[in-house]
Structure formats: C-alpha cells, structure tokens
C-alpha cells in the first residue's frame, strides 16, 4: 500500500467510492484504513453514532497521509445513496454522475438530481476525477432486512458501474454486532456459518460473486489497533486496489 502507484500514468491516484445507507460504517471504514496504515486509531472522517437524518451529503475526497508530506495513491469518497424513500439519500442519477467524475469536490447533494448547469458539475472530468472502484457498504446484520426498494437502487448503481466497466466490491461491516462468535474473537469472522449466509444472501441480492464480498469490523471503540482487525480491513482494501488497478490498466 505504501508504495502503490497506478501504473497507468494518466492517473495519479485510484479513487474508491463507498456507497451505502447512513450508519453503514462508510466513514468508519475510511478512518479504519487510516488507522491500520498509521498504526494508531484515527478519527478524521466524521462518524455519526446517532444516525438520525442529520448527515452531510457533501462529496468529499479523503486522502490518507503517508509520511511527513505525502499521501497514499488511493483516495476515498463516500456517498449516502441507499435510502428507501426517494427524497432521502442521494439520487441514483447523482451517483452515476459521480462514477463518471462529473461531481466536483465539495458539492452538496440535494433532493433534486444534479444538472449540467450546477456549479458543482464538472463538464470535462479527467481520469483522476472518475471512480475506479465501487464499494457497497452494508452492516452484516442488516442484509436480511434490506428492503426491496433499497436493493433495487443498489442494483441500479451496480449495473451503471458495470456498464462503465467499473469493478465492484462489497463490505459487510459490524460483524462484531451481527455475530457473537466474531465479537468474542474477530478471527472467527470467516468461520461463522451465520456470516457466510449473509455473504451468500447479499451476493444473490446484488448479483455480486461471494469472493468480492468482505467481512470486517471497523475501529470504533478501540483505542489501539490490533492485528486481527487490521487483517480483515487490509484484505478488503487490497482487493479494492487490485481491482481498481486492473481497471486503470484495461482502459
Ligand atoms: N460495533 C461496530 N460499530 C461500528 C462499526 N462500523 C461502524 N460502527 C458504528 O456505527 C455508527 C455509524 O458509522 P458511520 O461510519 O458514521 O456510518 P456512515 O453513515 O456509513 O458513514 C458509528 O457509531 C460507528 O462507530 C463496526 O464494524 N462495528
Ligand atoms: Mg458517514
């Protein structure tokens, strides 16, 4: 990760877009990656424990410091796009625009989809502005509770990404909440039959192969990092970077 640079020299960095419902653990995942890489718990992307309807819907790029003056060559954006009612959450059309790189950093999403006249609309995105990997984020314990409308939206976003050739990965977060065995010992996450069932169920709902769906626990209450939590996070991150790198090289 430290030395990763996109081989394609038209791209200076790899952009990973996390999408999922409010409270799924998107901001926590960004913080968790930073925690793993810096070896200490980081809390830069604001998380929301109360998960009400107050959330920022700003399109923001998160960079992770690497050394005293550099940054890692992958960045994250997160978008809240999977609410069941149409006036909550970011419009599917806006997510498609973000995938193509049309949404400028700092743009505030609102209930009406973005139009070409908006100030935050980028008419001529470069390869750096585009999304290179799409990641769906859902708490492991919520898979069986997903409502049809949410699933429909997720599939729609996924299909749009597929049409653009953008690779996709999913992460099932909060395995500690969903499974008592995983809570007791996080090394049990991939041994749990219950969690495996959630992966298979999600795979069927979304049409994403099970080997693109990762189980993990974010750093949320810990004050120190732990190898076993790091391992799950790194496993997911490494695959995101591999797939994104393939996409950049196949262009
Ligand atoms: N127990 C546990 N809590 C988590 C995990 N991931 C996130 N959380 C908590 O869930 C809440 C919502 O997370 P947040 O990252 O703000 O979700 P976002 O809306 O998708 O950005 C916060 O209180 C987090 O601390 C996890 O893996 N395990
Ligand atoms: Mg968030």
Strand and helix map with partners:
Blueprint: E1 14-20, H1 26-38, E2 61-62, E3 65-66, E4 70-71, E5 74-80, H2 92-100, E6 133-139, H3 148-163, E7 168-173, H4 175-178, H5 180-184, H6 193-206, E8 213-215, H7 227-250
The structure holds guanosine-5'-diphosphate (GDP) and magnesium ion (MG).
How does this model look, in words?
The chain has 251 residues and is an alpha/beta fold. The chain has one domain: Rossmann fold (3-Layer(aba) Sandwich). 34% of the residues lie in helices and 14% in strands. It contains seven helices and eight strands. Strands 2-5-1-6-7-8 form a six-stranded mixed beta sheet, with helices on both faces. It has a two-stranded antiparallel ribbon with strand order 3-4. α3 links the parallel β6 and β7. α2 runs parallel beside α3. The site of guanosine-5'-diphosphate (GDP) has 19 residues, from α1 and α4.
Concise structural overview:
With 251 residues, the protein is an alpha/beta fold.
Using the 3D structure, state the CATH architecture.
3-Layer(aba) Sandwich
So what's the oligomer here? Answer: single chain
Secondary-structure-based class equals alpha/beta
Strand content: 5-15%
Low-confidence stretches: none
Q: Can you write the helix and strand succession as a string?
A: EHEEEEHEHEHHHEH
Number of helices: 7
- How helical, in percent, are the residues? 25-40%
The name of the CATH topology is Rossmann fold
What binds here, in terms of ligands, is: guanosine-5'-diphosphate, magnesium ion
- CATH class categorisation: Alpha Beta
């Amino acid at each position: 990760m430290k030395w990763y640079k996109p081989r394609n020299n038209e791209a200076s960095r790899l952009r990973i877009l996390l999408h999922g419902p409010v409270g799924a653990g998107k901001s926590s995942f960004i913080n968790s990656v930073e925690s793993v890489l810096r070896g200490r718990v980081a809390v830069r992307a604001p998380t929301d424990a109360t998960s009400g309807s107050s959330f920022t819907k700003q399109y923001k790029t998160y960079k992770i410091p690497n050394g005293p003056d550099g940054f890692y060559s992958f960045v994250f954006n997160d978008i809240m796009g999977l609410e069941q009612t149409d006036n909550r959450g970011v419009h599917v059309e806006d997510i498609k625009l973000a995938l193509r790189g049309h949404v400028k950093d700092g743009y505030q999403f609102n209930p009406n989809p973005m139009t070409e006249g908006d100030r935050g609309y980028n008419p001529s995105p470069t390869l750096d502005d585009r999304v290179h990997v799409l990641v769906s984020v859902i708490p492991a314990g919520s898979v069986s509770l997903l409502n049809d409308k949410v699933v429909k939206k997720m599939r729609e976003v996924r299909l749009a990404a597929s049409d653009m050739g953008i690779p996709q990965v999913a992460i099932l977060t909060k395995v500690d909440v969903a499974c008592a065995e995983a809570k007791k010992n996080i090394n049990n996450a991939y041994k749990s039959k219950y969690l495996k069932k959630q992966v298979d169920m999600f795979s069927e709902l979304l049409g994403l192969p099970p080997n693109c769906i990762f189980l993990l626990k974010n750093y949320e209450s810990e004050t120190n990092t732990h190898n076993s939590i790091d391992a799950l996070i790194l496993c997911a991150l490494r695959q995101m970077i591999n797939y994104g790198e393939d996409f950049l090289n196949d262009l």
